[in-house]
Amino acid sequence: MNRRNFVAGALALAVLPVLAACGGGTTSLNTPPSATGSAAVADSTMVIGTANFSENQILGYLYADVLDAAGVKATVKPNLGSREIVVPALQNGDIDLLPEYQGNLLLYFDPKATASDSDALQKALTDKLPKGLTVLPPAAAEDADVFTVTKETATKYGLSTLADLAKHNGQLVFGGPPEVKTRQVGVVGLKDVYGVEFKEFKSLDASGPLVKGALKSGGVQMANLFSTDVDIAKNGWVTLADPKHLIPAQRVVPLIRADKATDTVKTALAKLNTALTTEELSKLDSLVDNDHKDPDEVATEWVKAHGLSS
């Protein structure tokens, strides 16, 4: 699977049931409600959902492996869609756990949030999350949005920071996943914080082959990529600096239904927090995106290699 690549079929399958759940009371992803059965059963099972990009899938399988090792039977439902789909699925009880990213998760619940460092974000998330949801302590790993141009574009337009983009309003084409058009860390925030306006926004994929191909070919002059993407350094692309801190910290954090956050689950997931660094996450991404290995196999091998499977 291509990293953060939109999977149209999975998204379509996820959207329709979610809408049905909103109107009818059945679970959106056909998962039996966790309220049924005994408390012991609820405590020993976990349904993990992931967004529609490969890094999030890897994280989901990492969560599953450490939970399985702790005696919690975990299943992964990958490629469910963007945050606008997977978070409501979590709230509806269709899944129990999501790998998330601090800054963008907070902005989802509070578009006017100003917290930017990891500690402040964690506190703000605790305050802003809807009843029934909670976040566990974050891992060391961080994967932030970055706005990237080629060396040629940086030289041609004199770009080194996001502030420089405003000098060329109406001239540049910006590419990224569809949701970036309406997100604060995207078109909206770039205009509000930096006064940037683009000639066009092209809806492509999230740090995947479409947007990177468009950046290479000149179909877009700037792409929304992700900081753990090894293709940035590989291609010599330039990540524009963010002097006004539009982009908040994005440490990886488990978002979980509060009734599933047992001591066993918390202890199991905490095993990842120190071992899973940004460097390690980038290596895992590369194994999937560049070496074309399966996310579940990559996760399992990593958990075993780091002594977390027992």
UniProtKB/TrEMBL annotation:
Classification via Pfam families: OpuAC (PF04069)
Chain ranges of the ABC-type glycine betaine transport system substrate-binding domain:
45-304
Signal sequence residues: 1-20
Q: Which UniProt keywords apply?
A: Signal
CDD domains in the cross-refs? PBP2_ProX_like (cd13606)
Name the source's superkingdom. Answer: Bacteria
Descriptive protein name: Glycine betaine ABC transporter substrate-binding protein
Q: Which organism is it from?
A: Nonomuraea guangzhouensis
